Amino acid sequence: MLKKSSDLNDCLQDLADHLKEHTNATAVYIGKLIQPNRPIKDDSVDTSHIDMEGEKVVRFGFANKEHAFLVK
User: Fold this and answer.
1) Which of 7, 23, 50, 63 is placed for a possible disulfide with 29 were both Cys, Cβ 3.0 to 4.6 Å?
2) What is the pLDDT of residue 40?
3) Please, what is the Cα angle at 16 between 13 and 18, to 5 degrees?
């Protein structure tokens, strides 16, 4: 499946499900460390929403079905 994929991000949900099934893990979730967002105004530039001074947070994009509530 990985060899056929043009974008490995398309395989991350399958990876989470596979890891949960084959490792005896109670949960599997995959996330990315990002800068938080902040409110923007009408005259903001395209990066104004990124709060570069805020502490980074994990945004989960994939999880096994029992922990899907973590995914935004």
Assistant:
1) 63
2) 81
3) 105
